[in-house]
Specification:
By secondary structure, the protein is an alpha/beta fold. It has 8 helices and 7 strands; from the N terminus they run E-H-E-H-E-H-E-H-E-H-H-E-H-H-E. It has a single domain, classed as NAD(P)-binding Rossmann-like Domain (Rossmann fold), CATH 3.40.50. It starts with 6 loop residues before the first strand and ends in a 6-residue tail after the last strand.
Amino acid sequence: MDLGGRVALVTGASRGIGRAVAIALAGRGAHVAVNYNGNAGAAEETASLVREHGVEALVIRADVADQEQVGAMMQQVLQKFKRIDILVNNAGITRDNILALLQEQDWDAVINTNLKGAYHCAKAALRPMLKARWGRIINISSVVALTGNPGQTNYAAAKAGLIGFTKSLAREIGSRNITVNAIAPGYIATDMTTNLTEENKAQLLKSVPLGRLGAPEDIAAAAAFLAGEGAGYITGQVIVVDGGMAM
């Protein structure tokens, strides 16, 4: 329970990786603010799973692409818990298409949520973290930031931007005992992969040495480690959790 008494905010926590991360942090003793933008029922379900670990949960609706909503969300967290120690920038969307057919609004939507959203949330969390001289910022990137992927120029650009953001921010605030790291998941069995055909999945698995899709809990385990005291000397790093796909 090395996160006992800590407070975490996990964006996009209503399902998938975000839900698994929220539950893993709660399992280590952290109180969790569960952010969502669309599905209130799913967010409440995440909160219930968090509370099963004997910690508190706060459900907050906010679009991370909107700076005012992020500011209001942070105020709710601070009013409830008086602190924020851990920020997990997980909220993300896809709007896939080949570049020749990719609409500008789909480019902007992905960049604004997946990259600019992390900027909004990290900036809002910095003041209380700097004051406390302790913090963990964990950005959920993607293996496609390292390898590229046809039809995902917008998504890959946003996730690659997160890596540069991670490394630069880590250099800015390391002296204040705040670490900033990124996790790059490979193909994870979530709602984003349910539309894959069995043939597509079989083709994908040929590129994964471990021979299986990842589970949200695989990413959550890495996030929980990075959030804990044992990771206090790790910053500016990209932890690739992809079954060996991008070696």
